[in-house]
Amino acid sequence: MLKIFKYMPARIKFFAFLSAFFAILQPFLSMLNPTITKQLITLIAKVQNGTSMNEVSLLFWNITTSGTSQSMIYLIIMAIGFAFLLMIVAFLSAFFAARTCIYGTYYLRKNLFEHLLTLSRSNLEKYSVGSLITRFSNDLNKIKDVIFVVVRGLVVSPFFVVWGLVFTTTTNVYLSIAIYIIIPFLVGAAVFAIFKLFPYYRKENWILDQLNELSKEDINAIALIKSYNLEEPRYEKYFNKNQEWFTIYRKNVVFGSFAWPIINGFVLFGNVAIFALVAYLIGSKGDDNVAKLIGDVSQFTANLSMISMGVFNTLFTINRLFRSSVSAKRYIELMNSKSEIPFVVSDKKVTSGAIEFKNVNFAYPIYKKGKLVDTKEALKNINLKIEAG
Protein backbone atom coordinates (compact mmCIF):
# COMPACT_ATOMS: atom_id res chain seq x y z
CA MET A 1 0.00 0.00 0.00
CA LEU A 2 2.89 2.37 0.71
CA LYS A 3 3.85 2.09 -2.97
CA ILE A 4 0.95 4.40 -3.78
CA PHE A 5 2.88 7.33 -2.24
CA LYS A 6 5.54 7.22 -4.97
CA TYR A 7 2.95 8.65 -7.39
CA MET A 8 2.50 11.75 -5.19
CA PRO A 9 4.68 14.90 -5.16
CA ALA A 10 7.10 15.60 -2.30
CA ARG A 11 4.77 18.22 -0.79
CA ILE A 12 2.04 15.62 -0.21
CA LYS A 13 4.55 13.20 1.31
CA PHE A 14 5.61 15.97 3.70
CA PHE A 15 1.96 16.45 4.73
CA ALA A 16 1.78 12.70 5.40
CA PHE A 17 4.93 12.88 7.53
CA LEU A 18 3.52 15.77 9.60
CA SER A 19 0.25 13.92 10.12
CA ALA A 20 2.08 10.79 11.30
CA PHE A 21 4.33 12.86 13.59
CA PHE A 22 1.40 14.55 15.35
CA ALA A 23 -0.44 11.20 15.42
CA ILE A 24 2.44 9.77 17.49
CA LEU A 25 2.21 12.70 19.93
CA GLN A 26 -1.57 12.41 20.34
CA PRO A 27 -1.58 9.11 22.33
CA PHE A 28 1.36 10.37 24.39
CA LEU A 29 -0.54 13.50 25.43
CA SER A 30 -3.68 11.44 26.02
CA MET A 31 -1.75 9.32 28.53
CA LEU A 32 -0.78 12.45 30.51
CA ASN A 33 -4.40 13.16 31.46
CA PRO A 34 -4.79 9.99 33.61
CA THR A 35 -1.44 10.84 35.25
CA ILE A 36 -2.70 14.28 36.28
CA THR A 37 -6.11 12.88 37.28
CA LYS A 38 -4.33 10.32 39.46
CA GLN A 39 -2.54 13.10 41.34
CA LEU A 40 -5.78 15.04 41.82
CA ILE A 41 -7.44 11.93 43.27
CA THR A 42 -4.40 11.32 45.48
CA LEU A 43 -4.56 14.95 46.65
CA ILE A 44 -8.25 14.63 47.57
CA ALA A 45 -7.58 11.37 49.40
CA LYS A 46 -4.76 12.99 51.38
CA VAL A 47 -6.99 15.93 52.29
CA GLN A 48 -9.57 13.47 53.62
CA ASN A 49 -6.82 11.84 55.71
CA GLY A 50 -5.67 15.22 57.03
CA THR A 51 -2.29 15.19 55.26
CA SER A 52 -0.84 17.69 52.82
CA MET A 53 0.58 17.23 49.33
CA ASN A 54 3.80 19.17 48.75
CA GLU A 55 4.87 17.73 45.42
CA VAL A 56 3.45 17.16 41.95
CA SER A 57 5.10 15.09 39.25
CA LEU A 58 5.19 15.35 35.49
CA LEU A 59 6.77 12.41 33.70
CA PHE A 60 10.24 12.11 35.29
CA TRP A 61 10.24 15.55 36.94
CA ASN A 62 9.03 16.35 40.45
CA ILE A 63 7.89 19.87 41.30
CA THR A 64 8.01 20.92 44.95
CA THR A 65 5.10 23.10 46.13
CA SER A 66 4.34 25.08 49.26
CA GLY A 67 1.30 22.99 50.11
CA THR A 68 -1.92 21.34 48.98
CA SER A 69 -3.46 24.52 47.51
CA GLN A 70 -0.47 25.25 45.28
CA SER A 71 -0.31 21.59 44.24
CA MET A 72 -3.96 21.73 43.18
CA ILE A 73 -3.36 24.95 41.20
CA TYR A 74 -0.40 23.38 39.41
CA LEU A 75 -2.36 20.23 38.61
CA ILE A 76 -5.35 22.19 37.27
CA ILE A 77 -3.06 24.34 35.10
CA MET A 78 -1.31 21.22 33.78
CA ALA A 79 -4.65 19.49 33.09
CA ILE A 80 -6.02 22.47 31.14
CA GLY A 81 -2.71 23.08 29.35
CA PHE A 82 -2.23 19.48 28.22
CA ALA A 83 -5.90 19.17 27.25
CA PHE A 84 -5.54 22.27 25.07
CA LEU A 85 -2.26 20.97 23.62
CA LEU A 86 -3.88 17.58 22.93
CA MET A 87 -6.70 19.33 21.07
CA ILE A 88 -4.20 21.25 18.91
CA VAL A 89 -2.10 18.15 18.16
CA ALA A 90 -5.17 16.06 17.29
CA PHE A 91 -6.45 18.85 15.03
CA LEU A 92 -3.09 19.22 13.26
CA SER A 93 -2.82 15.46 12.73
CA ALA A 94 -6.33 15.27 11.27
CA PHE A 95 -5.76 18.46 9.24
CA PHE A 96 -2.59 17.23 7.54
CA ALA A 97 -4.14 13.77 7.07
CA ALA A 98 -7.12 15.37 5.32
CA ARG A 99 -4.82 17.45 3.09
CA THR A 100 -2.84 14.31 2.25
CA CYS A 101 -6.05 12.49 1.31
CA ILE A 102 -7.61 15.27 -0.75
CA TYR A 103 -4.53 16.52 -2.59
CA GLY A 104 -3.02 13.04 -2.80
CA THR A 105 -6.15 11.69 -4.51
CA TYR A 106 -6.17 14.69 -6.85
CA TYR A 107 -2.60 13.98 -8.00
CA LEU A 108 -3.27 10.24 -8.26
CA ARG A 109 -6.28 10.89 -10.51
CA LYS A 110 -4.31 13.46 -12.54
CA ASN A 111 -1.34 11.11 -12.98
CA LEU A 112 -3.62 8.24 -13.97
CA PHE A 113 -5.34 10.36 -16.62
CA GLU A 114 -2.01 11.59 -18.04
CA HIS A 115 -0.69 8.02 -18.07
CA LEU A 116 -3.75 6.78 -19.98
CA LEU A 117 -3.06 9.37 -22.67
CA THR A 118 0.33 7.73 -23.30
CA LEU A 119 -1.09 4.22 -23.77
CA SER A 120 -1.79 2.71 -27.16
CA ARG A 121 -5.21 1.49 -28.26
CA SER A 122 -4.22 -2.13 -27.74
CA ASN A 123 -3.36 -1.33 -24.11
CA LEU A 124 -6.71 0.30 -23.47
CA GLU A 125 -8.63 -2.57 -25.09
CA LYS A 126 -7.51 -4.79 -22.20
CA TYR A 127 -9.77 -2.76 -19.88
CA SER A 128 -13.48 -2.22 -20.25
CA VAL A 129 -14.95 1.26 -20.07
CA GLY A 130 -16.66 0.30 -16.81
CA SER A 131 -13.36 -0.87 -15.35
CA LEU A 132 -11.63 2.42 -16.21
CA ILE A 133 -14.49 4.43 -14.73
CA THR A 134 -14.34 2.30 -11.57
CA ARG A 135 -10.62 3.03 -11.20
CA PHE A 136 -11.23 6.76 -11.49
CA SER A 137 -14.17 6.78 -9.07
CA ASN A 138 -14.67 3.90 -6.65
CA ASP A 139 -11.04 2.74 -6.49
CA LEU A 140 -9.69 6.24 -5.90
CA ASN A 141 -12.31 6.88 -3.21
CA LYS A 142 -11.17 3.72 -1.42
CA ILE A 143 -7.54 4.77 -1.85
CA LYS A 144 -8.40 8.14 -0.29
CA ASP A 145 -9.81 6.32 2.74
CA VAL A 146 -6.78 4.06 3.06
CA ILE A 147 -4.38 7.04 2.80
CA PHE A 148 -6.09 8.46 5.90
CA VAL A 149 -5.74 5.07 7.58
CA VAL A 150 -2.01 4.84 6.79
CA VAL A 151 -0.96 8.36 7.79
CA ARG A 152 -3.15 8.59 10.90
CA GLY A 153 -5.13 5.52 11.98
CA LEU A 154 -2.25 3.09 11.57
CA VAL A 155 -0.10 5.36 13.74
CA VAL A 156 -2.52 6.51 16.47
CA SER A 157 -3.96 3.12 17.46
CA PRO A 158 -0.71 1.14 17.94
CA PHE A 159 0.87 4.01 19.85
CA PHE A 160 -2.01 3.99 22.32
CA VAL A 161 -0.82 0.48 23.17
CA VAL A 162 2.88 1.46 23.18
CA TRP A 163 2.53 4.59 25.32
CA GLY A 164 0.02 2.83 27.58
CA LEU A 165 2.54 0.11 28.38
CA VAL A 166 5.32 2.67 28.93
CA PHE A 167 3.24 4.75 31.35
CA THR A 168 1.95 1.76 33.31
CA THR A 169 5.43 0.29 33.70
CA THR A 170 6.97 3.54 34.94
CA THR A 171 4.11 4.33 37.34
CA ASN A 172 3.67 1.23 39.48
CA VAL A 173 5.57 -2.00 38.89
CA TYR A 174 3.14 -4.10 40.93
CA LEU A 175 0.01 -2.89 39.16
CA SER A 176 1.68 -3.12 35.75
CA ILE A 177 1.87 -6.89 36.33
CA ALA A 178 -1.90 -7.05 35.89
CA ILE A 179 -1.61 -5.21 32.56
CA TYR A 180 1.10 -7.54 31.29
CA ILE A 181 -0.95 -10.57 32.33
CA ILE A 182 -3.86 -9.33 30.22
CA ILE A 183 -1.76 -8.42 27.16
CA PRO A 184 -1.28 -12.06 25.96
CA PHE A 185 -5.03 -12.65 26.23
CA LEU A 186 -5.76 -9.46 24.29
CA VAL A 187 -3.22 -10.45 21.64
CA GLY A 188 -4.69 -13.95 21.49
CA ALA A 189 -8.19 -12.57 21.02
CA ALA A 190 -6.85 -10.16 18.41
CA VAL A 191 -5.16 -12.98 16.49
CA PHE A 192 -8.40 -14.96 16.67
CA ALA A 193 -10.30 -11.99 15.21
CA ILE A 194 -7.70 -11.48 12.46
CA PHE A 195 -7.55 -15.10 11.32
CA LYS A 196 -11.27 -15.81 11.73
CA LEU A 197 -13.03 -12.58 10.87
CA PHE A 198 -10.85 -10.83 8.31
CA PRO A 199 -10.94 -13.64 5.70
CA TYR A 200 -14.73 -13.43 5.86
CA TYR A 201 -14.55 -9.63 5.55
CA ARG A 202 -12.41 -9.97 2.41
CA LYS A 203 -14.71 -12.64 0.96
CA GLU A 204 -17.71 -10.46 1.72
CA ASN A 205 -16.13 -7.58 -0.22
CA TRP A 206 -15.33 -9.89 -3.12
CA ILE A 207 -18.93 -11.14 -3.31
CA LEU A 208 -20.26 -7.58 -3.03
CA ASP A 209 -18.09 -6.63 -6.03
CA GLN A 210 -19.61 -9.56 -7.95
CA LEU A 211 -23.11 -8.41 -6.98
CA ASN A 212 -22.29 -4.93 -8.24
CA GLU A 213 -20.97 -6.37 -11.51
CA LEU A 214 -24.18 -8.40 -11.96
CA SER A 215 -26.25 -5.29 -11.31
CA LYS A 216 -24.16 -3.31 -13.80
CA GLU A 217 -24.58 -6.05 -16.42
CA ASP A 218 -28.35 -6.08 -15.93
CA ILE A 219 -28.60 -2.29 -16.20
CA ASN A 220 -26.47 -2.16 -19.35
CA ALA A 221 -28.31 -5.05 -21.01
CA ILE A 222 -31.83 -4.40 -19.76
CA ALA A 223 -33.28 -4.00 -23.27
CA LEU A 224 -31.73 -7.28 -24.42
CA ILE A 225 -32.90 -9.10 -21.28
CA LYS A 226 -36.50 -7.97 -21.75
CA SER A 227 -36.45 -8.71 -25.47
CA TYR A 228 -35.44 -12.34 -24.94
CA ASN A 229 -37.42 -12.88 -21.70
CA LEU A 230 -34.28 -13.49 -19.65
CA GLU A 231 -35.64 -11.91 -16.47
CA GLU A 232 -36.06 -15.22 -14.65
CA PRO A 233 -32.55 -16.63 -15.31
CA ARG A 234 -30.95 -13.29 -14.43
CA TYR A 235 -32.99 -13.08 -11.23
CA GLU A 236 -31.97 -16.64 -10.30
CA LYS A 237 -28.30 -15.79 -10.85
CA TYR A 238 -28.53 -12.62 -8.77
CA PHE A 239 -30.51 -14.35 -6.02
CA ASN A 240 -27.94 -17.16 -5.69
CA LYS A 241 -25.09 -14.67 -5.44
CA ASN A 242 -27.05 -12.65 -2.88
CA GLN A 243 -27.62 -15.79 -0.78
CA GLU A 244 -23.89 -16.49 -0.91
CA TRP A 245 -23.21 -12.99 0.39
CA PHE A 246 -25.83 -13.42 3.14
CA THR A 247 -24.16 -16.65 4.32
CA ILE A 248 -20.77 -14.94 4.59
CA TYR A 249 -22.31 -11.89 6.29
CA ARG A 250 -24.07 -14.09 8.85
CA LYS A 251 -20.76 -15.79 9.70
CA ASN A 252 -19.18 -12.34 10.14
CA VAL A 253 -21.91 -11.36 12.58
CA VAL A 254 -21.69 -14.62 14.54
CA PHE A 255 -17.90 -14.54 14.88
CA GLY A 256 -17.93 -10.81 15.60
CA SER A 257 -20.54 -11.23 18.34
CA PHE A 258 -18.14 -13.61 20.08
CA ALA A 259 -14.77 -11.99 19.32
CA TRP A 260 -15.33 -8.44 20.57
CA PRO A 261 -17.13 -9.41 23.83
CA ILE A 262 -14.27 -11.82 24.55
CA ILE A 263 -11.78 -8.94 24.24
CA ASN A 264 -14.01 -6.78 26.47
CA GLY A 265 -14.12 -9.63 28.97
CA PHE A 266 -10.33 -9.69 29.12
CA VAL A 267 -10.31 -5.93 29.76
CA LEU A 268 -12.77 -6.36 32.63
CA PHE A 269 -10.67 -9.22 33.96
CA GLY A 270 -7.68 -6.85 33.88
CA ASN A 271 -9.59 -4.32 35.99
CA VAL A 272 -10.47 -7.06 38.48
CA ALA A 273 -6.79 -8.07 38.64
CA ILE A 274 -5.77 -4.46 39.30
CA PHE A 275 -8.23 -4.09 42.19
CA ALA A 276 -7.17 -7.47 43.60
CA LEU A 277 -3.54 -6.35 43.58
CA VAL A 278 -4.51 -3.09 45.28
CA ALA A 279 -6.32 -5.00 48.01
CA TYR A 280 -3.25 -7.19 48.50
CA LEU A 281 -0.90 -4.20 48.66
CA ILE A 282 -3.11 -2.42 51.18
CA GLY A 283 -3.26 -5.54 53.32
CA SER A 284 0.49 -6.13 53.20
CA LYS A 285 1.78 -2.56 53.45
CA GLY A 286 -0.83 -0.96 55.65
CA ASP A 287 -2.62 2.35 55.17
CA ASP A 288 0.40 4.55 54.51
CA ASN A 289 0.17 4.42 50.72
CA VAL A 290 -3.61 4.09 50.36
CA ALA A 291 -4.01 7.60 48.92
CA LYS A 292 -1.36 6.96 46.28
CA LEU A 293 -2.79 3.53 45.45
CA ILE A 294 -6.24 5.04 44.91
CA GLY A 295 -4.73 7.43 42.37
CA ASP A 296 -2.76 4.63 40.73
CA VAL A 297 -5.94 2.57 40.33
CA SER A 298 -7.66 5.41 38.49
CA GLN A 299 -4.66 5.83 36.19
CA PHE A 300 -4.28 2.12 35.50
CA THR A 301 -7.96 1.56 34.70
CA ALA A 302 -7.80 4.53 32.30
CA ASN A 303 -4.58 3.20 30.74
CA LEU A 304 -6.06 -0.28 30.37
CA SER A 305 -9.09 1.20 28.59
CA MET A 306 -6.80 3.14 26.24
CA ILE A 307 -4.68 0.04 25.56
CA SER A 308 -7.76 -2.04 24.76
CA MET A 309 -9.08 0.80 22.59
CA GLY A 310 -5.73 0.79 20.79
CA VAL A 311 -6.04 -2.95 20.18
CA PHE A 312 -9.62 -2.55 18.90
CA ASN A 313 -8.79 0.34 16.59
CA THR A 314 -5.63 -1.34 15.32
CA LEU A 315 -7.66 -4.39 14.30
CA PHE A 316 -10.28 -2.31 12.50
CA THR A 317 -7.54 -0.22 10.88
CA ILE A 318 -5.82 -3.34 9.56
CA ASN A 319 -9.19 -4.56 8.29
CA ARG A 320 -9.79 -1.30 6.39
CA LEU A 321 -6.27 -1.54 5.03
CA PHE A 322 -6.97 -5.03 3.68
CA ARG A 323 -10.28 -3.91 2.18
CA SER A 324 -8.73 -0.99 0.33
CA SER A 325 -5.47 -2.63 -0.74
CA VAL A 326 -7.23 -4.24 -3.73
CA SER A 327 -8.05 -0.80 -5.15
CA ALA A 328 -4.46 0.33 -4.64
CA LYS A 329 -3.16 -2.76 -6.46
CA ARG A 330 -5.54 -2.10 -9.38
CA TYR A 331 -4.32 1.51 -9.59
CA ILE A 332 -0.64 0.49 -9.49
CA GLU A 333 -1.28 -2.23 -12.08
CA LEU A 334 -2.69 0.33 -14.52
CA MET A 335 0.09 2.83 -13.80
CA ASN A 336 2.73 0.14 -14.43
CA SER A 337 1.32 -0.77 -17.84
CA LYS A 338 3.53 0.40 -20.70
CA SER A 339 2.47 1.45 -24.18
CA GLU A 340 3.04 -1.20 -26.84
CA ILE A 341 4.00 1.61 -29.23
CA PRO A 342 7.27 3.01 -27.90
CA PHE A 343 7.75 6.75 -27.71
CA VAL A 344 10.57 7.54 -30.13
CA VAL A 345 12.86 10.46 -29.40
CA SER A 346 14.55 11.65 -32.60
CA ASP A 347 16.48 14.71 -33.70
CA LYS A 348 14.86 14.57 -37.13
CA LYS A 349 12.66 17.57 -37.90
CA VAL A 350 9.67 17.74 -40.20
CA THR A 351 10.53 20.13 -43.02
CA SER A 352 7.45 19.54 -45.15
CA GLY A 353 3.96 18.30 -44.43
CA ALA A 354 3.67 16.57 -47.80
CA ILE A 355 3.54 12.76 -48.03
CA GLU A 356 5.02 11.10 -51.12
CA PHE A 357 4.95 7.44 -52.24
CA LYS A 358 7.48 6.30 -54.85
CA ASN A 359 7.33 2.96 -56.67
CA VAL A 360 5.00 1.38 -54.10
CA ASN A 361 4.04 -2.28 -54.64
CA PHE A 362 1.37 -4.19 -52.74
CA ALA A 363 0.39 -7.87 -52.95
CA TYR A 364 -2.19 -10.02 -51.12
CA PRO A 365 -0.78 -13.19 -49.52
CA ILE A 366 -2.35 -16.52 -50.51
CA TYR A 367 -2.40 -19.25 -47.86
CA LYS A 368 -3.20 -22.97 -48.13
CA LYS A 369 -3.48 -25.09 -45.00
CA GLY A 370 -1.99 -22.28 -42.99
CA LYS A 371 1.09 -21.90 -45.22
CA LEU A 372 1.97 -19.04 -47.55
CA VAL A 373 2.03 -20.48 -51.08
CA ASP A 374 1.72 -17.46 -53.33
CA THR A 375 0.96 -13.74 -53.58
CA LYS A 376 -1.45 -11.81 -55.75
CA GLU A 377 -0.14 -8.46 -56.87
CA ALA A 378 -2.66 -5.64 -56.53
CA LEU A 379 -0.55 -2.50 -56.93
CA LYS A 380 2.72 -2.01 -58.80
CA ASN A 381 5.03 0.97 -59.09
CA ILE A 382 2.53 3.43 -57.65
CA ASN A 383 3.73 7.03 -57.36
CA LEU A 384 1.62 9.40 -55.30
CA LYS A 385 2.14 12.71 -53.53
CA ILE A 386 -0.24 14.30 -51.01
CA GLU A 387 0.48 17.98 -50.57
CA ALA A 388 0.56 19.58 -47.13
CA GLY A 389 -2.62 21.21 -45.90
Automatic annotation (TrEMBL):
Which molecular-function annotation in GO is an example for this chain? Answer: ATP binding
Keywords, comma-separated and alphabetical? Membrane, Transmembrane, Transmembrane helix
Q: Name one GO cellular component term.
A: plasma membrane
In which compartments does the protein localize?
Cell membrane
Q: What's its membrane topology?
A: Multi-pass membrane protein
Main location, first listed in the record: membrane
**InterPro entries membership:** ABC1_TM_dom, ABC1_TM_sf, Type_1_exporter
Q: Where is the ABC transmembrane type-1 domain?
A: 17-323
Chain segments annotated as transmembrane: 72-98, 146-167, 173-195, 258-282, 302-322
Q: Which PANTHER family match?
A: ATP-BINDING CASSETTE SUB-FAMILY B MEMBER 10, MITOCHONDRIAL (PTHR43394:SF1), ATP-DEPENDENT PERMEASE MDL1, MITOCHONDRIAL (PTHR43394)
Annotated family: Belongs to the ABC transporter superfamily.
User: What is the name of the protein in this document?
Assistant: ABC transmembrane type-1 domain-containing protein
Native source species: Mycoplasmopsis fermentans (strain ATCC 19989 / NBRC 14854 / NCTC 10117 / PG18) (Mycoplasma fermentans)
Question: Which lineage ranks, top first, belong to the organism behind this chain?
Answer: Bacteria, Bacillati, Mycoplasmatota, Mycoplasmoidales, Metamycoplasmataceae
